[in-house]
Write a structure and sequence with these properties.
The chain is an alpha/beta fold. The chain folds into two domains: 84 residues, 2-Layer Sandwich (GMP Synthetase, Chain A, domain 3); 58 residues, no CATH class. It is built from three helices and nine strands; from the N terminus they run H-E-E-E-E-H-E-H-E-E-E-E. A hairpin with a 7-residue loop joins strand 7 and strand 8. Bound molecules: zinc ion.
């Protein structure tokens, strides 16, 4: 029977399809792994936002990964409460997102009332804060498009939800 630790190690290879270098654990999507009798495994995930199409892909990847390791029964549960926040992205997740060319979400103070106001989004290439929003929606609805006014490079910003 596989231990919880072993399963967590295997799941490190499951990444967010939006940012293929960042694992679902680093994204804060992977919430829990429980092992039951007869090798049964229940994996709990929290969607980055409700209705995110990437979640179906992630659930399938988890299932394929664990079945590929010889597990027989894999349950995937979605936990919607507490809701995912960008604060759940780990420091290593933020660094990898940055290295991938996506501006990580800006950390906000818990009591910040201006929830819908975007902070300055620094350019992931030259770190300039002279950037402008080009489109609220990038390649997927989880990201928005920005352009750097200094190095002229377009880049994507992972939105705060
Ligand atoms: Zn730049």
């Amino acid at each position: 029977m596989s231990s919880r630790e072993q399963i967590l190690t295997w799941l490190e290879s499951v990444t967010d399809p939006e940012i293929p270098t960042v694992s679902i654990e680093e994204m804060g999507i992977l919430r829990d792994v429980r092992t039951g009798e007869a090798g049964e495994v229940t994996v709990t995930i929290t969607p980055t936002y409700s209705g995110c199409p990437a979640m179906d892909v992630i659930a399938m990847q988890i299932r394929m990964t664990l079945l590929g390791r010889g597990l027989k029964t894999v349950h995937i549960e979605q936990s919607l409460s507490p809701a995912w926040t960008t604060d759940w992205i780990t420091e290593s997740g933020r660094q990898k997102m940055h290295a991938f060319g996506i501006a990580p979400p800006v950390r906000k103070a818990k009591d910040d009332l201006a929830l819908f106001e975007e902070d300055e989004v620094p350019c992931p290439k030259c770190a300039s804060v002279h950037t402008e929003l080009v489109s609220r929606f990038g390649a997927t609805s989880c990201k928005s498009m920005y352009r750097c006014l200094d190095c002229k490079e377009p880049f994507e910003h992972f939105k705060c939800h």
